[in-house]
Each structure stands twice: as structure tokens, then as C-alpha cells.
Write a structure and sequence with these properties.
about 50 residues; single chain; alpha+beta
């Protein structure tokens, strides 16, 4: 997936904790979880 490649290109990798701030529709949230892997975590916070 292009989104997963993009996240890896900007430095995300497995076993990291990731903050998806202002996630909107969550287009990258699931992809961030894939990159983080089973030992990583993805936290999300949307601003309104």
C-alpha cells in the first residue's frame, strides 16, 4: 500500500508508539497500526 510505504519512508517502524493527531477519517490510522506491529501502539486524538 502506498500509505504504508509513505509512513515507513518518514521514519515510522515496528514496536513504536505513534500519535495520530487530528486523524479525521482515520485514513492513516490503520496503516500506522500495521507499521507499528503487534508490539507497537497507535494513539489517536481528533480535534474539533
Amino acid at each position: 500500500m502506498k500509505g504504508e510505504i509513505f509512513l515507513r519512508d518518514i521514519g515510522m517502524k515496528g514496536n513504536q508508539s505513534i500519535l495520530d493527531f487530528g486523524y479525521g477519517l482515520g485514513n492513516y490510522t490503520i496503516l500506522a497500526a500495521v507499521v507499528a506491529g503487534q508490539m507497537g501502539k497507535v494513539y489517536v486524538r481528533n480535534c474539533m
